[in-house]
Amino acid sequence: MSDVKKLIGGALSEIIEAARTGGPRVKVGLMAHGSEHGPEELAIGGRLAQQNNQSIQVVMIGPKVEGYDDLQWIETDPCDADIAKAMETAISDGTIAGAVALHYPFPMGVTTIGRVLTPAKGKDMIVASSTGTSAINRVEAMIRNAIYGIATAKAMGKTNPTVGILNVEGAQLVFKALNKLKENGYDITFGESLRADGGSVLRGNDILAGAVDVCVCDTLTGNVLMKMFSSFNTGGSYEALGWGYGPSAGEGWSKVISIISRASGAPVIANAVAYNGEVAKGEHSEKVASEVAAAKKAGLEDIIKGVLPKPECSEEVVAPPAEPTDEEIHGVDVLSIEDAVRELWKNKIYAESSMGCTGPVVKLPGKHMEKAKKLLAQAGYL
Predict the structure, then answer these.
(1) CA proximity to 146, closest of 224, 201, 77, 96
(2) Which residues are catalytic?
(3) What does the pLDDT look like over 262-290, one tens digit per residue?
(4) CA-CA distance, 194 to 125, in Å (whole number)?
């Protein structure tokens, strides 16, 4: 009889808790060992997450820290392998909907979608991506990062997120590829740079102001941005701002595993747990699968093939006689600028590559401007 009473009591407690918090609580796992600031910093972060978000139940995974009985615990030895195994088991059996880890061996093709607090206007911005690798080739990776960033924003409830591409190598190729997807029917909304010349290729000013909802970049650059945004006021040893390196995303990947740094402080840990719970509740993996399917329908695979490096040609191209260059063609990516110049040389148009204020340019005589633009567009450089 006592067992029946316990079951009834437990069920009633769950009903009362659901009524109080507006629905079932999302259980998010948090590694409890490995921080440079000690295990208590992780426990404090878990407690903050739970106190600030009544819809979240934090499940600490690792050696128990005394004084934090308000958190659930899956106790293990202080061994990375044991903690990782316990976390994997808890995800697999449904004990937790997602997890926040200090490290995780993501397979090739899986990356994480970070989130920062931009200082100019106090606006949050997604950084796609910040750890892991969605593809070996940078341009392909950034195209996929854009899709995963959009999916993550939608899992957070942003139905029409704006997208911009950070002005790194490959940015123009990425923009052209994403624009081609849009022309083919993929639903993407490009944001605008705050600079006078506008466009969807972002400069440093834009990311400081959070000009877009999703900033697309390569993973290494994104990782640097995450560290800069999170700890620029602390000297780098303590990450105090933002939501961490974000949940994992990849084609065919179903786990919602977020990453924090060993330098992440309690405020970032708490935000990372809340971010993970939010997207898990928002069906993050399903959103990623849906966006990938929509992009494939719009020709994603062929578009990616079109931007991948082509085999080098042994044909030697000689520059025509030099002429004064008084005009510039913008919009050719830095990775393709020399090839674009040689394309014009093959057509007897003298041209030079150069770097302008907003990126690479092709310099040429003004009399050839119209023909040169057509040639470069036909060859896929514009």
Answers:
(1) 201
(2) 357
(3) 999 999 999 999 999 999 999 999 999 99
(4) 15
